[in-house]
Amino acid sequence: MRGKVRRTAMLSLLSTIGFLLMFVEIPLPMFPAFLKIGVSEIPALIGAILFGPLAGVAVELIKNVLHFLLSNQGGMGVGELSNFVAGSTFVVVSVFFMQKLKQSKVNFWLGMTAGTTAMAAVMSVANYYFFMPAFAYVMGMSVHDIVGWSQEANSSITSLWALILYAVLPFNLIKGLAEAIITYPIYNRLRPVIQSK
To answer: Are 88 and 57 in contact (CB under 8 A)?
Structure first.
C-alpha cells in the first residue's frame, strides 16, 4: 500500500514538472517557429525508467491534459495530442529496449537511439497525414499556408513533404538527442535503485 502511494505521489510530481517544463522551449535556426525544442519528456522518461513504460505514458497524458486545460492557446488540443504521441512513443520505445537489454550505460544509449528513431518516424508520418492538416483546419488556414509560413525559416520547404523532411524529421531527432543527453546523468544516479529492484 505504501509503495502504491509513493508511486502515485512520484508520478503526480513528475507530471507537474513535465507540465511546467512545457513552457521552457527554445527556437532553433532554420526551423519553423512552431517547432521549438523542449525537455518536457524527461519527467515521463524518469517515471518510465522507475516504474515501467505505462507510468511514462501516464505522465505524458497528465501533463498534456493540464496544459490543454490551463494554457491552451487556441489549437483545440492538436498541439497537446501531438506532444502526447511524440513523448509516449519516445518514452515507451526507449524504456522497452532498456528493460529488454538490461539496465546499463550502453543499453541506455541503445534505448534512447531506438526511442528517438521511433519518435522521428512516427511523428513524420503523423504530421503528414494528421497533425499538420488538423492544425491548419483548427487555425482556419490551409496546409499550403503552413508551408509558406515555414518557408520563411527554410527556403527548401516548398511542400508538406519537404516540411516533414527538412523540419519535422530532423527536429525530432535533435529533440530526442537533447533529452537523452540531459537524462543520462539522472539515469546514472537512478541506476543503483533500479538494479536493486
So the answer is: yes
Whole domain around residue 40: which residue ranges? 2-195
DSSP H helices, 127-168, are 132-138, 143-151, 160-163
For residue 17, what is the domain's CATH number?
Answer: 1.10.1760.20
Cα 82 to Cα 183: distance, rounded to the nearest angstrom = 22
What is the SS3 assignment for 139?
A: coil
At what angle are helices 105-126 and 169-195 packed, to 10 degrees? 150
CA angle, corner 47, sides to 56 and 7, nearest 5? 110
pLDDT higher than 90, residue 72: no
Q: What is the pLDDT of residues 123-141, one digit of tens each?
A: 999 999 999 999 888 888 8
**pLDDT tens for residues 18-53?**
999 999 888 888 898 888 898 999 999 999 988 889
Quote the cell numbers at residue 23.
513552457
Q: What are phi and psi of 36, to 5 degrees?
A: -125, 140
CB-based contact 89:128 (threshold 8 Å): no
Tell me the C-alpha distance between 112 and 176, whole Å.
7
- For residues 24 and 154, what is the distance between their CA atoms, to the nearest angstrom? 23
